[in-house]
Amino acid sequence: MAGDRAPEPGLVDAVRQGDEDAFGVLVQPYRAAIHAHCYRMLSSLFDADDALQETLLRAWRALPRFQGHELLRPWLYRIATNVCLDALARRRKRGLPIEHGRPAGPHDQPGEQLAEPVWVEPYPDQAIGLQDGYASPEARYEQREAVELAFIAALQHLSPSQRAVLLLRDVLGFSAKETAGTLGTTVASVNSALQRARRRAGERMPARSQQATLRSLGDQRVRAIVQGYLDAWERGDVGALAAMLAKDATFSMPPYPTWWRGREVIAAFAAVPIHRYLPTQANGQPANAAYRWDTQKRRYLAEALEVLTLEGTQVKQMTAFMMPAIFQRFGLPGELPGQDPAARAQRGRAEYPDPGRSAP
Question: In whole angstroms, what is the distance from residue 155 CA to residue 148 CA?
Answer without folding.
Answer: 11
